[in-house]
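Retro notes
What went well: the complex prediction finally ran end to end.
Inputs used:
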Amino acid sequence: MRRRPPLNAWRVFGAPILIAMVSLVGLVAALLGDGLPDWISWATLSVPLIVIAWAVKARRT
Amino acid sequence: MSRSAILAWDAVHKWTSLGCTAFLLLLCVTGLPLVFHEEIDALTGAHAELPAAETATLHDLDAVMETALAARPREVGLYMSFDEDRPVVNITTGPRPDAPETQMHFQPYDQRTLAPLPMGSAGGVMDVILRLHTDLFLGLPGLLFMGFVGLVFLAAVVSGVVLYAPFMRKLEFGTVRASRSTRTRWLDYHNLLGVVTLAWVIVVGGTGVINTLSEPIIKIWQADQLAEMTAPYRDLPAPPPRKLASIDAAVKTAMAAAPGMRPQFVAFPGGSFSSRHHYAVFMQGAKPATKKLLTPALVDARTGELTAMRPMPWYAQALLLSQPLHFGDYGGLPMKILWGLLDVITIVVLGSGLYLWIAKGRRSTAAGAGVANDNRAVLDRAA
């Protein structure tokens, strides 16, 4: 039987986990105050959209 | 992951997705205008600029209440709420103190002139959209059903994340195989858009589920803490609804007892948010989070005395915090725009998922096999 190569979970889930954590920071930040926390939320919640734009442009095969 | 595990998760993802996709599409499509309801209201004339008034002095709240009751002579006061950014008092009246929402009448008043303010023309349409989004016009059963749909959706999301691993094992993150078949391309879009919006979708979905439980949660609060706070009044007859103590004095009493907070709304005696004997003045903090965490001050509606004040219990606070996290209304217009864009992406994930299922069915029938090519390739790789 062929030996199964180890599934590198970090390679598969690294970027998604990072994006999820950044999004969570954004979801909580604006709850904590106005001004700077709002800016943090806007920046971090833009990350998923930026990643999509990047992938569609740079990872198109 | 073993072949049988992938097949099992695939079945979970397929059936949970099929079970909720139609409703989720409805929720996403109706949710989009709801995110921007304040802006839409403003465009259509509601919540417009206040007309200039000769005086900046405000009438007291009793005068506003009298004006409202004079306009609705057969009704009683149910709620009074206060705009944050302008001198406007909103009065909700109804035929009885415990009137259901459908019989309530809402009217904003200019506190400087006591003039009723126009309600805006989109009110009706937005109400229909809101009902479609929350309870499908079915009341509590509809709400609870939508909550269940939300849970099924969360199961679809989780199973989707599990399946993401075998599909992406040989692919760089973010790969879109645009030169391959339409189905492969859309599979990649589905995976990419789904996984990058994961945290947002789980938070908005999860808080949506909690929001469907608002009625039971408020009932528990009533039976638990509110009953405890008003225990000495339990056997007393209720005061007549049109002969209550000064509401202006009640609000001032509550404000004096909670320095640094402002009143958000007052619930009148006999409704869901108060006892039969009290004005419940709901005080809010100043920060976006503490603004949502309400503290009710109970003021005896006969004598005007403050009888109890304590923050809402944790389960009610969870509900109150779930509201901004679901609505996306706590970070200005840029946040609403992000909410709208993420909502549109979710629609694309739902639509592409549906397409993948239909395309797979077509191909399976053509090939006479149960598993489509892409899935088979994944299974081969896993084996």
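What we learned: Chain B has a mean pLDDT of 89.
What to try next: split runs per interface for comparison.
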